[in-house]
């Protein structure tokens, strides 16, 4: 039987050697956790977004108050950065709570899309996003191609996309808006496969430690959640029907 020594074990753990078959089972179990946490977060975000979209009072509070809206966005960025940097230093309940708090906050800001796009186009784009995400995540999980070489290209592309999007907030150029929308879709389609493959290595961080394994799964769920949400928003810019 072929043996497998995970490279991504936590530094404090003794070296554990397992068979390739056991390694595959560990990865499959870990990814089930990741997808489960991600699905729960998406359900929470969607529920909050629909609640906000159906309440003129909340919409007015969020969309009508630019200071409140930007404060929410900054708070979201802080929570994501904090979870990403400190996940393994936090308790399991704190990591999970922060993740779902972020998902709820994101639902509040996303509720504004119901002011701009029709409910039917939002729903159809969500299902298109789900199908695209599933295909690319499965590709990232099962492919034998090493996708790590995509890392630098995707990082540079993401930085360029952010800069172009910020510039267009002031320039309001329709052509640049269209270009960044298509580039954004391509970027997050690729990132879905790349991050999924990367998470297969993260499965071994908590090997033999249930709490560390749970934290790693929540961190992985956050990564794929962000890929899904961004892919959805860029697809909505292309296929969404405005009111």
TrEMBL record:
Its main location: membrane. Keywords: Membrane, Transmembrane, Transmembrane helix. Pfam families: Bax1-I (PF01027). It is a multi-pass membrane protein. The keyword Transmembrane helix applies. The keyword Transmembrane applies. InterPro entries: Bax_inhibitor_1-related. The chain crosses the membrane at residues 34-55, 67-85, 92-116, 122-141, 153-171, 177-195, 216-239. It is found in: Membrane. GO terms for cellular component: plasma membrane. Belongs to the BI1 family. This is Bax inhibitor-1/YccA family protein. It comes from Hymenobacter taeanensis.
């Amino acid at each position: 039987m072929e043996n497998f020594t995970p490279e991504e074990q936590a530094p404090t753990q003794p070296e554990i050697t397992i068979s390739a078959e056991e390694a595959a089972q560990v990865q499959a179990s870990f990814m089930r956790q990741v997808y489960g946490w991600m699905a729960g977060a998406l359900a929470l975000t969607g529920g909050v977004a629909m609640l906000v979209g159906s309440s003129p009072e909340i919409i007015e509070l969020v969309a009508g108050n630019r200071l409140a809206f930007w404060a929410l966005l900054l708070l979201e960025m802080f929570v994501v950065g904090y979870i990403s940097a400190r996940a393994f230093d936090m308790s399991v309940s704190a990591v999970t709570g922060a993740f779902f708090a972020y998902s709820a906050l994101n639902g509040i800001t996303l509720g504004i899309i119901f002011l701009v796009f029709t409910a039917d186009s939002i729903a159809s784009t969500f299902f298109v996003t789900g199908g695209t995400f599933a295909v690319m995540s499965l590709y990232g999980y099962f492919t034998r191609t090493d996708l790590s070489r995509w890392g630098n290209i995707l990082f540079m592309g993401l930085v360029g996309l952010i800069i172009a999007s910020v510039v267009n907030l002031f320039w309001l150029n329709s052509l640049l808006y269209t270009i960044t929308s298509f580039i954004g879709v391509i970027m997050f389609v690729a990132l879905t496969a790349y991050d999924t493959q990367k998470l297969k290595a993260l499965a071994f961080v908590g090997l033999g430690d249930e709490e560390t394994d749970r934290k790693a799964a929540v961190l992985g769920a956050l990564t794929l959640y962000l890929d899904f949400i961004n892919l959805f928003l860029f697809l909505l810019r292309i296929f969404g029907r405005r009111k």
